Automatic annotation (TrEMBL), chain A:
The name this protein goes by in its record: Peptidase U62
Gene3D superfamilies for the chain: PmbA/TldD superfamily
Any Pfam family: PmbA_TldD_3rd
Listed InterPro entries: Metalloprtase-TldD/E_C, TldD/PmbA_N, TldD/PmbA_sf
Provenance organism: Phytohabitans aurantiacus
Alphabetical list of PANTHER family matching this protein: CONSERVED PROTEIN, TLDD PROTEIN
Domain Metalloprotease TldD/E C-terminal: 212-446
TrEMBL record, chain B:
Species of provenance: Phytohabitans aurantiacus
Pfam family, one: PmbA_TldD_1st
Annotated signal peptide: none
Residue ranges of every copy of the Metalloprotease TldD/E C-terminal domain listed in the record: 234-450
Metalloprotease TldD/E central domain mapped to chain residues: 116-219
Family recorded in the similarity comment: Belongs to the peptidase U62 family.
Domain of life where this protein originates: Bacteria
Record's protein name: Peptidase C69
Residue intervals of the Metalloprotease TldD/E N-terminal domain: 22-86
Keyword Protein biosynthesis: no
UniProt keyword annotation of Metal-binding present: no
Length: 453, 478
């Protein structure tokens, strides 16, 4: 149906006008719980038609959810009018040429058709497994299908389905968390996540305040997600790179040799539509290999400005924020199966903790904001558990810190002391994006304030 | 069928499917934005969306369903689906839910609008941004950006208690920014604020900003910042400009007084609040100069409306009075849980999202001083303005904010420009240290307040004035 809609709109565009149409249908359902009961339970199913036109050297774009003939004709008419009134677009990169997809996307029927009861049952299991601790979080399922057609002859379709669960358990002022995303509904077990969150919360009770300063850290995989997110948004963003606001220097050894970053929506655990907003097929893109920066993400416009090719990262909606990787993953290090994870430490972090003489285990980084985009100095707070590590053991829970830290510097050559051997897929806290992360042991992290100021 | 009829059909279907309360919002939104860079229009976007969102209460459990289809059949199906989802919620039920009473009304409301922003020719709007960004480039900007956003929202609300309310809210605003790239760092100056200034007004709002007149100044300042000395580190007297004060209010007061956060409903994501309802009416939040109101009736401010998305009429009340915490932002269900008798602060980001507790206009009443008086009365301190970064913990206590620009204050005079000014503190300690507050209040608009899952973007207003604070830690660096 989506491809028929896309071609119907394309057929309404006058000859001689370059046009691209992206139709997506998103059915999203999210069951949210707090104080150990379901307090919000929502679903919507929305089809959006996005049109971009380039006529007489001028470009405009528009979108609508009104898919009647009248609504679609209105979209075409408004966008044409807008294009005529716009100044010339000297940087128009042209439309994506016909190109085959590498995959139609990862799809799972059971996930796509998950019922409100299936989500509620996972919440029930999370709450029960927390053993009476107060709990909060969500279980989400979505299915997303898309079709793209342009007047250059590129026509592609794809779909994906996702389930994600993210929750906390709380006791005596301490929160513990567990979360995961997957394409398969059966991968998400509320009981496993609830038990894990509760164990971490209990282990976090009675936290003490430590003085701020530089500490060696093990970032659990959940915390590494924030590092990936900010590297994507500010570092590997092709627009930021073109404007010299990114730290990225392709070809340079900017990060530790243990760091390899790959954006891949198509692999076994990949999620997302297999083409971008301009119809360019997605493919795995290595942004950092062995610490050497390899590439930045480009859409067709930023690629043309940089003299390169699109990497398939044109985003939906406002494109002025640039092209971003939205399936970025840190490749895991060598497996280390000899260390027992225990109830508190993320299994992906256990072997890293064992090697730390004195440092901190950090579960989440929260409310991070960039002080300077080029050096990527970020401030934020820890959340959902911090523990002191002494001689390879967790010795006591620690109250939250504020930090102010350059992320590329934290990952710089010689600064990465270990990468966990197991990676997990996590949902983005805000948008439709996914991050794949193992735990990470870093030589130094700059904590600039304690919980009391 | 009228939009009211469609909404009524959805409500009836939810009741027929077992709901004991239901409401529905039909919404039609038009949006336009333009972004210019370095003298060219880089992106023009126009969008339209329309649909219906239905909320159903079955027993003590809520359900919500939304579709972009305004036919009678789709509306009825959405009502039934909302009730079905609510029934599924009962697998993990909460305590008995109630709603504080609101008189059912038939009403109509529109925001003030002198110049319809969507009817202003695109060429005029483009010329404005092109001119301003060209000027910034001529004055040394490495990247010169200009933008505006326009929202035109119509909504029709029907509840099973008898509400029939339609509203039209037009919002717009814009701004410009100059970015200077140095050796290893980037400096930014924007006018009138990062992302601009916004209100529930017509295009006259953008015209009043006079963007072009400020382009050269901010470009010059962005370049000058590259070689300015860094903000010194330590404790000092801090004066904040009104735009930064708006952000300070938003983050450390506005979110903290959201009742859903106080009740733990946002614990896993946005977070909770350091405020305890047992202290409502007695807690010493700030100095006696601190008077903060919740006021959606302010003409032209970005958080203004006639009725919230539960049909509660807009009303002004104090959140903080002479430094004492006295009020919260509440919805009908959260107010009932808390034992309060007022709601009125529930809104949704479109028809496809669940209405939730949001800020309206949360801001300061005027103080007795002026900015000039504050500077003249300060022997040694720092003046900071225009927010650049913001971070605060999940209880809304521990914050660190960065501004675009700072100035040294020595012996009652504004001195050298300072780069990378930051300050940090704990909310109530900070507010209790406020010893001077200006009367020069500006109703700043924040068009990008994120909350909820799925994420919702809220539009909030924050009347704010320059203020002075004592013993604040500044100059935090990585």
């Amino acid at each position: 149906m989506s491809i028929e809609l896309a071609q119907r709109v394309l057929g309404m565009v006058p000859a001689g006008v370059e046009a691209e149409v992206f139709v997506d249908h998103m059915a999203r359902a999210l069951t949210r719980f707090a104080n150990s009961f379901i307090h919000q339970n929502v679903a919507d199913a929305t089809t959006t038609v996005r049109l971009r036109l380039h006529a007489d050297g001028r470009t405009a774009s528009g979108a609508t959810t009104v898919t009647t003939d009248e609504g679609l004709r209105g979209l075409v008419s408004r966008t044409l009018d807008a294009a005529r009134l716009c100044p010339p677009d000297a940087g128009w990169p042209g439309l994506a040429p016909p190109a085959a997809l590498a995959s139609e996307g990862n799809w799972n029927e059971e996930t796509a058709k998950a019922s409100p009861e299936a989500r509620a049952d996972r919440v029930r299991a999370f709450v029960d497994a927390a053993g009476g601790l107060e709990t909060a979080g969500y279980c989400r399922t979505l299915h997303w299908s898309a079709a793209f057609a342009n007047s250059a002859g590129q026509v592609v379709t794809g779909r994906t389905a996702e389930v994600a669960m993210d929750g906390i358990a709380r006791v005596e002022g301490a929160d513990g968390t567990a979360r995961v995303a997957s394409g398969r509904l059966s991968d998400v077990d509320g009981a496993v996540l609830g038990a894990r969150a509760a164990a971490k919360a209990r282990a976090g009770a009675g936290a003490v305040e430590l003085p701020p300063g530089r500490y060696e850290v093990v970032l659990e995989a959940t915390a590494v997600v924030d590092v990936l997110h900010n590297l994507s948004l500010y570092g590997f963003n092709g627009k930021a790179y073109n404007e010299r606001q990114s730290f990225a220097e392709p070809g340079a050894q900017q990060l530790d040799a243990a760091v390899t970053l790959v954006d891949d929506p198509l692999g076994d655990t990949g999620l997302g539509i297999p083409f971008d907003a301009e119809g360019t097929p997605k493919r795995p893109v290595e942004f950092v290999s062995g610490g050497v920066t390899q590439a930045v993400a480009h859409d067709r416009r930023t690629a043309a400005e940089a003299g390169g090719e699109s990497t398939g990262h044109a985003g939906l909606g406002v494109r002025t924020r640039g092209a971003l990787p939205v399936n970025l993953g840190l490749m895991p290090g060598p497996a280390a199966s000899s260390v027992e994870a225990g109830a508190v430490i993320d299994p992906a972090a256990a072997s890293l903790v064992a090697g730390v003489e004195r440092g901190l285990l950090v579960t989440d980084l929260w409310y991070t904001r960039v002080l300077d985009p080029k050096s990527l100095v970020v401030t934020g707070l820890t959340r959902n558990g911090v523990w002191l590590i002494e001689d390879g053991e967790l010795t006591r829970p620690v109250r939250n810190f504020r930090f102010t830290q350059s992320y590329p510097q934290a990952l710089g050559p010689g600064a990465v002391l270990g990468v966990g051997g197991q990676a997990t897929v996590f949902p983005d806290p805000w948008g439709i994006a996914w991050w794949t992360a193992p735990a990470l042991r870093l030589a130094s992290w700059n904590f600039t304030g304690g919980a009391s100021g | 069928m009228s939009h009211f009829d469609v909404a009524a059909a959805a409500v009836q279907a939810a009741l027929d499917a077992g709901a004991r309360y239901a409401d529905a919002r039909v919404m039609h939104r038009r949006y336009e934005s333009m972004f210019a860079r370095n003298g060219d229009v880089e992106e023009l976007t126009q969008s339209e969306d329309a649909g219906i969102g239905v909320r159903a209460l079955v027993g003590s459990s809520w359900g919500f369903y939304a579709v972009p289809d305004l036919s009678d059949g789709a509306a009825r199906a959405a009502g039934g689906r909302a009730a079905k989802i609510a029934a599924a919620s009962a697998r993990v039920p909460g305590p008995a839910a109630d709603l504080v009473p609101v008189q059912a009304r038939t009403a109509s409301w529109s925001s003030e609008c002198v110049i319809d922003p969507l009817s202003v020719p695109l060429s005029d709007k483009g010329d404005l941004l092109v001119h301003a960004t060209k000027t910034m480039r001529e004055h040394g900007a490495d990247q010169a950006e200009g933008l505006y956003h326009i929202w035109d929202t119509e909504k029709w609300f029907v509840s099973s208690e008898g509400h029939r309310i339609d509203q039209r809210i037009r919002e717009c605003g814009g701004g410009i920014a100059s970015i200077a790239v140095g050796d290893g760092e980037v400096q930014r100056r924007s006018y009138p604020a990062d992302r601009g200034q916004y209100g529930t007004r017509g295009w006259e709002m953008v015209e009043s900003l006079d963007l072009g007149a400020h382009a050269a100044r901010i470009a010059d300042e962005s370049r000058a910042l590259l070689t300015a000395p860094p903000c010194p580190a330590g404790e000092t007297t801090l004066i904040l400009g009104d735009e930064q004060m708006a952000l300070q209010i938003h983050e450390s007061v506005g979110h903290a007084i959201e009742l859903d956060r106080i009740l733990g409903w946002e614990a896993a994501f946005a977070g909770t609040s350091w405020l305890d309802l047992n202290q409502l009416g007695s807690l010493h939040y700030g100095s006696e100069l601190m008077n903060i109101t919740i006021d959606p009736t302010l003409p032209g401010a970005l958080g203004s409306f006639g009725f919230d998305d539960e049909g509660t009429p807009a009303a002004r009340r104090h959140a903080v009075k002479e430094g004492r915490w006295v009020g919260v932002l509440a919805g009908r269900d959260s107010a009932a849980v808390a034992g309060l008798d007022y709601a009125g602060s529930v809104r949704a980001d479109g028809w496809a999202r669940l209405p939730m507790v949001r800020m309206t206009n949360v801001g300061l009443e005027p103080g007795p001083h002026t900015l000039d008086e504050m500077i003249a009365a300060t022997d040694d301190g720092v003046y900071m303005d225009t927010n650049r970064s913001w971070s605060i913990d999940d209880r809304r206590l521990n914050f660190q904010f960065g501004c675009e620009i700072g100035w040294e204050i020595k012996n009652g005079r504004r001195g050298r420009m300072l780069r990378n000014p930051t300050y940090t503190g704990i909310g109530p300690v900070f507010w209790r240290s406020m010893d001077m507050l200006s009367s020069e209040v500006v109703p700043w608009g924040t068009p990008n307040c994120g909350k909820g899952q799925p994420g919702q973007i809220g539009h909030t207003g924050h009347p704010a004035a320059p203020a002075r604070f004592q013993n604040v830690r500044v100059g935090v660096r990585g």
